[in-house]
Amino acid sequence: MIAPAYQNDQEVSAALALLMRADDPRRAAWDAAGDDDKAVARLQATIDIDAVRWRGSRACADQPMAWPRRERRGGALQFVGTFADAPGASVADLPRELRLAHAAQSAGIVLGAAAGQGAQAAAAEVEAAVAAGLTSQSVPGRSETYDARRAAAPFNRLEPEARRLLERFRWTGGSFS
Q1: What is the full DSSP assignment across 143-166?
Q2: Which site in 1, 43, 149, 155 is 20 to 30 Å from 52, CA atoms measured?
């Protein structure tokens, strides 16, 4: 059995067409990747997204992924997306932001694998710098402070575009509802 992913290849390609220009290197890397590389990237993107602590709770206790979610707003239980049982379908009715973020993360993984870049590689570089004893680095026009805990946080391992899209769904403290 193949592990589930939030979207199939065609859905990721369609989302990338909405999200990125045709000359974006992430979109070009996705378009050039083989089916196996795309499948691995989609699954890794799902794992990356599921590792983040999200607001609310899973819509169904036995669902395999973190989304769809449900949360209480003003005392009423609201569903944020629903799970699709249709044969061959991925998860339907997810928030648009999640579909776009999954596509951006998938494309970033493909590009990162090809070029040794991406949010995960950048986080690994920070972890390595901290392990080597560095706390900050300055070069003309830029200064960075290294925080291993922040670099290791699942949300910070997402591609910048995915983080921007999903920020409003992230659990930031308080009680889960």
Answers
A1: EEE--HHHHHSGGGGS-HHHHHHH
A2: 1
